[in-house]
Every structure is written in C-alpha cells, then in structure tokens.
From TrEMBL:
Name this polypeptide is given: 6-phosphofructokinase type B
GO biological process: canonical glycolysis; fructose 1,6-bisphosphate metabolic process; fructose 6-phosphate metabolic process
PROSITE patterns attached to this UniProt entry: PHOSPHOFRUCTOKINASE
Summary of the function given for this chain in its UniProt record: Catalyzes the phosphorylation of D-fructose 6-phosphate to fructose 1,6-bisphosphate by ATP, the first committing step of glycolysis. Negatively regulates the phagocyte oxidative burst in response to bacterial infection by controlling cellular NADPH biosynthesis and NADPH oxidase-derived reactive oxygen species. Upon macrophage activation, drives the metabolic switch toward glycolysis, thus preventing glucose turnover that produces NADPH via pentose phosphate pathway.
InterPro entries on file: 6-Pfructokinase_euk (IPR009161), ATP_PFK (IPR022953), PFK_vert-type (IPR041914), Phosphofructokinase_CS (IPR015912), Phosphofructokinase_dom (IPR000023), PKF_sf (IPR035966)
Cofactor names: Mg(2+)
Organism: Cuculus canorus
C-alpha cells in the first residue's frame, strides 16, 4: 500500500500547486542527498498503485539516528527548499521525524555558523512541517484503526491458511503456523479468528500456566469429534506468563510427544510483506495521502506533528507523539505483566476480536436449555462472507442454549418447510467458503406469506435471522407489515446485510462487498497490463452493483481508473466529451492506455455499448477501444479476511441482540414482539455496530432504485477524479479534524 500513498501524496501535492520531491532509500537518501532527492511530476507515479513494496525504496539508516546525520539531512532539504515532509513508515521512522522537526531551528543555526547556508536561506526555511502515515504490517501503532499494509498481510496469511487447510485435511495433520507482528498479536489474532484456529498464542495475552495440558486435551477433543485437522497460530512474539518466549517448534514437539499427531511447522516470514496490495490498502493509502497533503498545507507553528489515520471510514489527524506514547504504554504494560490492560490499550477492535475468538474457538456447553428457537436463512444473490455469518450465528445460538434451525433457499425454502436443526459441528469449516452453503433465492415473502406463517407456527420459530441483500431487508419489512394479519410474525427479526452491491440502508459496509471489490480490482489490474502492452488502447469495463455505484467507484480508486460512471453522480454528454478529450491528451504522454469503469445501471441510454461506440469514433486514429463485462466473477471467490471477520462479528452480535430482545418480550411461556425495535438491520456506521429498525429505514430508502437515499462513499468520488487529473474544485473536500488518542 505504500506505493498508493506515494502516488496520492505526489498527485495531491502537484494538484494544490506545490513542488513535490521523492526521496529515495528512506532516511539514508535524505542524509546522502544528491540523486536520492528528485523532483516528481504527475507521470512519475503512474502505474505503481498495483505494485507491492515501495518504488522509492526504504532503508534503515544509522546516520539519521545521530545529530551529525540529521545536520546533513537538513542541509539537503534546505538546498531544495523543502520545508514539508511526509513520512511513511513505522513508529521508529515517525519518532525520528519528530526529533528532526524539534531540532530543525538548531540545525539551521549550526549550518549558518558553519557558513554552509546564508541567514536569508535559514529565514526562508525556518519551519519544518511533518505529517506521518503509518506503514506497518504489524498494525501495532495505537490511535490508527488500520495501518498501511496490514490488510494485504492478512490476505497473504489467509491464502496460505486456505492452502494448508486442504492438505492438512487430506493427511489428518496438525499445523503450527507462525505469523509476523513483532510484539503485537494483531495479525495472529485476526487470522486466528478468520480461520477458526484451534489454539492461538498472542503476546498480549499469554496462556495460563499449565496451558500445555489444556491445549493437548482440546486438540484431542476436536479430533475425537470428527475433525480431520488442527490449526495452531502463533505470533512470533508469543510468550508465557513469566515472559519466556514460546516457539513454534516447542508447540510442535509437545503435540507430537503427547498426542502422536502428524505435525508440521510453517513459518510464514516475509511472504507477509510482499505481493499485490489489497483494495482496502490501496484506498486507505490514497485517502490518507490526500489528507496528509491537506494537513501540511494547514499546519501552523502551533500544530503538533500529526499522523493521518482512519477512524471508521473518516480521515482524522492525531498528534504523533500521543500515538507513540500510547504505543509505548502497551509495551510497558506487557513488560510489567499487566496483560488485561495491554489488550485494552491496543484499542476497542483488538479487544473485541479477542473476546469473540474466545467465544467461538471451543464449544462450551450451554448453562441451560433456553425455550427459544431461531431460524437462519440467506436471501438474495450469493455474497462472500454469508457462510462465516451463518457459522458464528449458529454457534453463538447453541452457546446460548437455543434450538437453531437453518433454512435452505431463502424465504421460498421457509414456505416449503426446507428447515433443519443444526449442531456445532455442522458448520465447521464454513468460514472460508465463498457463496452461500445454505442456498439463496430472491423470492420475497409476499408471494408465499400464508405458507411462511404456517411453518413459523409449525416449528415454533421465535427469532428470524436473515442474511442477505436488499431483498432480505425488503422481505423482513414485508413480514413486519403483515404482523397485523398474522400474530405468528410478532417475533424478533434481524437482517445482516450481505451483498456485493453495498446498497442496504442502515450500514456503511455490507458483507461481501470487500471481496467483490478485490475480485473486480484483480481483473482490472490484468486488463491494465494488457492495455500497457498493446499501447493506445482504452478499456471500458462494466461492473455489477445494480443502481449502486459503490463497487465501481471503489474499484476505480483501487486501480487508478480514468473515470467511473455511476447512477448517483449524474453525467451528461458534455461529461462524456470531456472524458474523451482527457484520454486523447493522455495518449500524447508516455502512458498510452486508459481504463474507464461503468456501473451496469448508471444510465438508461448511455449503455456500455453506447460508450464503446462513442469512444471508438471520437478516438479514431488516436486510440482503439475494447469492452470487458466482469459479470458474475464479482460474486465468487473465497471471502477476504475482512469479510470473514466482519461476517463472524455480525453473526455473533446479531444473535446476542436477538437473545436479549427475546428475553424482554417473553411472557407466560410465549414470545410476542411488535414494537418498532423488534425487527432491525445490524450494520457498521462510522465505527459503531448499530441496530436500525426496518420501519425507520423505510423512510430513507429509494425502493425504485433499491438504494439508501444518502450514501457516505459519494465523497470518495472527489478523490477518484483528482487522482485521475480532472480539474475539479477542492471546496467540497472535507479535511480531517485533529483528535486525541
């Protein structure tokens, strides 16, 4: 994701009229100067967004840790008239930048005394502004939800775990996987949660003494219940209660000696740092890069050095040294064996992940059988992550002592009685499966209401969990509106939004949209490669999404598209003409290729075919065109780490909420629920998981186009256009605010 950040900072800088320099080889280049500091233009950062690593190089630098080294660095910056520095790196690099900034006035004074610069030059460059972007796969920097590179590292880990799972199942093996992360267990924790690992070692929460017996007992139990494999995930910084390191080989030898299982160790190592960046990392870095330039522009002598970060889906700025301090506090808490505190200092989402992992890792018998029955179904088109949500919902339901049914083929299956009770092990291994294992249909309840009611009565269903897209939301709304006619529908209902289109009201992200964006992005990367080879070629790529332009906009940002046409951002023939002229100009440069995305329903008359004809005739003799319709490949594939985790969390939270509501409305041995908040959509809003009543959401829904009336992601369109070099005004740009950790 670093390249996406370099690209965004460079282009935004040029866009606001600044001179932008790229410093090669990190602080080493800053100290050495010379050819390591080069002025950049718009094309310097073209075609790098899809590359892993960093094209400007990075190096650990001894010299910069000394004052003499920083003096040389200051001289090199002053020579180029550079007074704003954007540093992309981990906490070490950022702390170094802050020291550099605090010494700046003194360094210039020394340079004047040595006669290396004049007093006038020192006056012109009297202030150094610094902004940091955190690039680290460990996600160990406090204050930021996600650091650049973490999501891509999780993609690599999950690819390996999926591959290992298949071989382990065939051979009935146990695998001990060691993942990176230094002193932070984030990668291990999230991959453990996303793969359903049997046992997990993280430095923030060392196992209780005597863990060896408990672990072996648990591994033996899962085998005796019919599981063919065990997966143990260990963070490289794992320790026991006394602070002694726990190595992957120690764990392996333990399993072999005590249980005699065929056991293998896989150390993932630097695989985790490499490869193509994920869509999330590309969009995150682009967003943070733009915000970093704004932070530098708006800096005053009184503003502290800041880090640009993400909070939910909003950019924020945080004082650099506050973040560094809290990051050090975590380490201190771990050194002093205050482990519970360490987990809290890591932040809400870390703690949340850890609690959910502990809840789902191992079957705990319910305290007592509850009187409630829940039914779970999938509705609409398949979306990755649906199975993860079903799995965690089933397991939490069982933990709570409920009777849990699953329904095949959506509302149609509910009307035909395709309903069966499930146990803990029936959903084993579902988390990494794409599509919908239960089967899904678009049928709405109003076509078969009587039969649905009959089966709700027959199976005595008091809670209905519907996992699906717009039809799931619309279906539950129809059931709620039929409560007046059928008392059987006065039950607790919850919708988990799962659709690649991300068009369900009540949530910022629906399950499956991250996987779909990654699938579309991978295809577009290949298409771009083909266009680069043939020269002077423009591809028009059609994405899915119904009327919702989310998929096309986010994919457009992730692949550096020239334009993305969507229904929500109306366009006319003048806009199309401007785009054609823009591409014609582009063909005169060294970059002789174009990529234009079009959402399938963005315009009634300007179809993909129309765009192709328009571009072909207008570009005649300058470029030629090709069409690509991505189609159903956007619905397929194994879920991304985000969707596995998000599905798991939503499944857990939805069932816990339903259990609570069922208790509230249980009177004299029966459930009767008809209040507004007894049927809700669960979703992520900014940073919080919220429940919104379907009847309330009805007021903010455009049913004709199957869209929420307000959509947060429309403000990403500004970034898409700016990065594609369109002359637009930045007055609509909303700067991040300075917050505190």
């Amino acid at each position: 994701g670093m390249n996406a950040a370099v690209r965004a900072v460079t282009r935004m800088g040029i866009y606001v009229g600044a001179k932008v320099f790229l410093i090669y080889e990190g602080y080493e280049g800053l100290v050495e100067g010379g050819d390591n500091i080069k002025q950049a233009n718009w094309l310097s950062v073209s075609n790098i967004i899809q590359l892993g690593g960093t094209v400007i190089g990075s190096a650990r630098c001894k010299a910069f840790t000394t004052r003499a080294g920083r003096l040389r660095a200051a001289r090199n910056l002053v020579e180029h008239g550079i007074t704003n520095l954007c540093v992309i790196g981990g906490d070490g690099s950022l702390t170094g930048a802050d020291i550099f900034r605090s010494e700046w006035a003194g360094l210039l004074e020394e340079l004047v005394q040595d006669g290396q610069i004049s007093e006038e030059v020192a006056r012109e460059n009297c202030r150094l502004n610094i902004v940091g972007l955190v690039g680290s796969i460990d996600n160990d920097f406090c204050g930021t939800d996600m650091t650049i590179g973490t999501d891509s590292a999780l993609h690599r880990i999950m690819e390996v775990i999926d591959a290992i799972t298949t071989t382990a199942q065939s051979h009935q093996r146990t695998f001990v996987l060691e993942v990176m992360g230094r002193h932070c267990g984030y990668l291990a924790l999230v991959s453990g949660l996303a793969s359903g690992a049997d046992w997990l070692f993280i430095p923030e929460s060392p196992p209780e003494d005597g863990w060896e017996d408990l672990m072996c007992e648990r591994l033996g139990e899962t085998r005796s219940r019919g599981s063919r494999l065990n997966i143990i995930i260990i963070a490289e910084g794992a320790i026991d209660r006394s602070g002694k390191p726990i190595s992957s080989n120690y764990v392996k030898d333990l399993v072999v000696q005590r249980l005699g299982f065929d056991t293998r160790v896989t150390v993932l190592g630097h695989v985790q740092r490499g490869g193509t960046p994920s869509a999330f990392d590309r969009v995150l870095s682009s967003k943070m890069g733009m915000e970093a330039v704004m932070a530098l522009l708006e800096a005053t002598p009184d503003t502290p050095a800041c880090v640009v970060s993400l909070s939910g889906n909003q950019s924020v700025r945080l004082p650099l040294m506050e973040c560094v301090q809290v990051t050090k506090d975590v380490q201190k808490a771990m050194d002093e064996k205050r482990f519970d505190e360490a987990i809290q200092l890591r932040g809400r989402s870390f703690e949340n992940n850890w609690n959910i992992y502990k809840l789902l890792a191992h079957q705990k018998p319910a305290q007592e059988k509850s009187p409630f029955s829940l039914a779970i179904l999938n509705v609409g088109a398949p979306a990755a992550g649906m199975n993860a949500a079903v799995r965690s919902a089933v397991r939490i339901g069982i933990c709570q002592g409920h009777t849990v049914y699953v329904v095949s083929d959506g509302f149609e299956g509910l009307s035909k009685g395709q309903i069966r009770e499930v146990g803990w092990h029936d959903v084993a291994g579902w988390r990494g499966r794409g599509g919908s294992m239960l089967g899904t249909k678009r049928t709405l309840p109003k076509t078969c209401m009587e039969k649905i009611v009959e089966n709700v009565r027959k199976f005595n269903i008091q809670g209905l969990l519907v996992i699906g897209g717009f039809e799931a939301y619309e279906g539950v709304l129809q059931l709620v509106e039929a409560r007046g006619q059928y008392e059987e529908l006065c039950i607790i209902m919850c919708v988990i939004p799962a659709t690649i289109s991300n068009n369900v009201p009540g949530t910022d992200f629906s399950l499956g949209s991250d996987t779909a964006v990654n699938a579309a992005m991978e295809s577009c990367d290949r298409i771009k490669q083909s266009a680069s080879g043939t020269k002077r070629r423009v591809f028009i790529v059609e994405t899915m999404g119904g009327y919702c332009g989310y998929l096309s906009t986010v994919t457009g940002i992730a692949v550096g598209a020239d334009a993305a046409y969507v229904y929500e951002d109306p366009f006319t023939i003048h806009d199309l003409k401007a785009n054609v002229e823009h591409l014609t100009d582009k063909m005169k440069t060294d970059i002789q290729r174009g990529l234009v995305l079009r959402n399938e329903k963005c315009h009634e008359h300007y179809t993909t075919e129309f765009l192709y004809n328009l571009y072909s005739s207008e570009g005649k003799g300058i470029f030629d065109c090709r069409i690509n319709v991505l189609g159903h490949l956007q619905q397929g594939g194994a879920p991304t780490p985000f969707d596995r985790n998000y599905g798991t969390k939503l499944g857990v939270k939805a069932v816990l909420w339903m259990s609570e509501k069922l208790q509230e409305v249980y009177r004299k041995g029966r459930v009767f629920a008809n209040s507004v908040d007894s049927a809700c959509v669960i979703g992520l809003r900014k940073k919080v998981v919220a429940f919104s009543p379907v009847t309330e959401l009805k007021k903010v829904t455009d049913f004709e186009h199957r869209l929420p009336q307000e959509q947060w992601w429309l403000n990403l369109r500004l970034m898409l256009k700016m990065l594609a070099n369109y002359q637009i005004s930045l007055t609509e740009y909303i700067s991040g605010t300075m917050e505190h950790v």
